Amino acid sequence: APALDLPDFDRCLSNSIDVPAELFHGRGDDVVAPAPVREKAGKVFRNLRYHLVDDDHPLTETFPLMDWDKLLEIR
Fold first, then answer.
1. What secondary structure does DSSP assign to 9-65, as a single string?
2. What is the pLDDT of residues 21-47, one digit of tens each?
3. Closest to 34 in 3D by CA, of 68, 4, 75, 10
4. Distance, CA of 2 to CA of 63 (rounded, Å)
């Protein structure tokens, strides 16, 4: 789960980044709440694809199934 809810990230909210970004967050994350992270990510990343998945904080089920070649491909 992305650590966008940390206080140090707040200074990034006044800027926006125009790079493709994929954000995966577990619906069952009991460490980092998905809603605030999604809100902040939407403010910073203009080209964001957000995926709320049925998983936990470390994305135990999702991480090994990710298509890393496609995710790392330059669009």
1. GGGGGG--EEEEEEEEEETT-SSS-HHHHHHHHHHHEEEEEEEEES--TT-TTTGGG
2. 999 999 999 999 999 999 999 999 999
3. 4
4. 13
Residues contacting 71, CB < 8 A, separation 6+: 22
Task: Output the pTM of the full model.
Answer: 0.85
How far apart are alpha carbons 40 and 3 in whole angstroms? 10
- Are 1 and 59 contacting, i.e. CB atoms less than 8 angstroms apart? yes
Contact 26, 37 (CB under 8 A): no
Q: Above pLDDT 70, what percent of the chain?
A: 96
Residue 55: other Cβ atoms inside 10 A: 20
